[in-house]
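This part of the workshop introduces the protein records we will be handling. Each record describes a single protein and holds just a pair of labelled lines. Instead of coordinates, the fold is spelled out as a row of discrete tokens. To make this concrete, we reproduce a full record directly below:
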Amino acid sequence: MKKEKLILVGGSGSGKDYLLKKLIDKGYKSYQKITTRPKRKNELSEYDFTDNNQFESLINESKMVCYQDFNIKGDTWYYGITKENFNNSEVFIMTPHELSMMSESDVKSSFIVYLNIDRKVREDRLNIRDDNNDDVKRRLDADEKDFQGFRSYDMMLTDPEFEMDDIISLWN
């Protein structure tokens, strides 16, 4: 039985955005995640950037499937997916925390792929990005904490040279 949604989970620099772009190129319908973080240098993003007041209104109005907040250097950054975007899309990127917020039926109807790529590989990828508004070591350390004991997936990839077609064949 094909699951309706494909959810990609992995640490910073694991290849989630790369894989999502490849899936979109294949015709799979993606979503627009909402965030309050600053836009990165040279970012061509599918994010909908908003402010904390508007994001908190969406939470209070129960319009979010899942969300997460991060305290970065005294600022709170939110990331999340609205119910509308979740219902109208097929492929997503989420964190373990966001997955834990989803309803049991939404999780059961999703194929969850964990990109468990080596820290050194991810660090090298992040350093190439040259993100001015975020610290690579902080992100990698936070990933270790976030993924400690993570077991809520259908497929785990450890090869940084993974093939998108392998994922699609198992999902379908």
User: Anything to note?
Assistant: Residues 2 and 169 are 10 Å apart (CA to CA). The chain has a mean pLDDT of 89.
